[in-house]
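HUMAN: I'm a chemist; might I ask for a sequence paired with its C-alpha cells?

ASSISTANT:
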Amino acid sequence: MDIKLLKTFLQVLKTRHFGKAAKNLFLTQSPVSTRVQLLEETVGIPLFQRACNNSQLTPAGQKLIGHVEGIVTLWNRARQQALLSDEVETILSVCGVPSLWDIFLQAWFERLYSSA
C-alpha cells in the first residue's frame, strides 16, 4: 500500500474538504480524490460521505482513524531510523507552538546542541 494514500486520508479527515486537503498537500483536488478512491477500493468500502463543503467519515472510516495514524507514525519512525548513520544512537523530537519556540525552545535547543 502506498503511504501517500493514508496521509491523504488523514489530511481530508483534518480539513473535512478535498480541496483544502489538496492545497495542504500541494496538489490539485483530482489526485486527492483519486487517492481516497484507491484507498476505498483497497479497503473495500467507502470511507467518506462526500458533500460540497463538508466531507464526513463513514462508520468504516471512523474505525480506520487510529490504525491509519499508527501506520503513518510507524512509517515515519522507520524512515528516520533508516536514514540515520551508524554513529547516531538517539533521536530527539522537539515540538512546540511557534510562540513557545521564539521565547524558549530555540535558545534551549541551541544550548543542547552546543553541549552535545
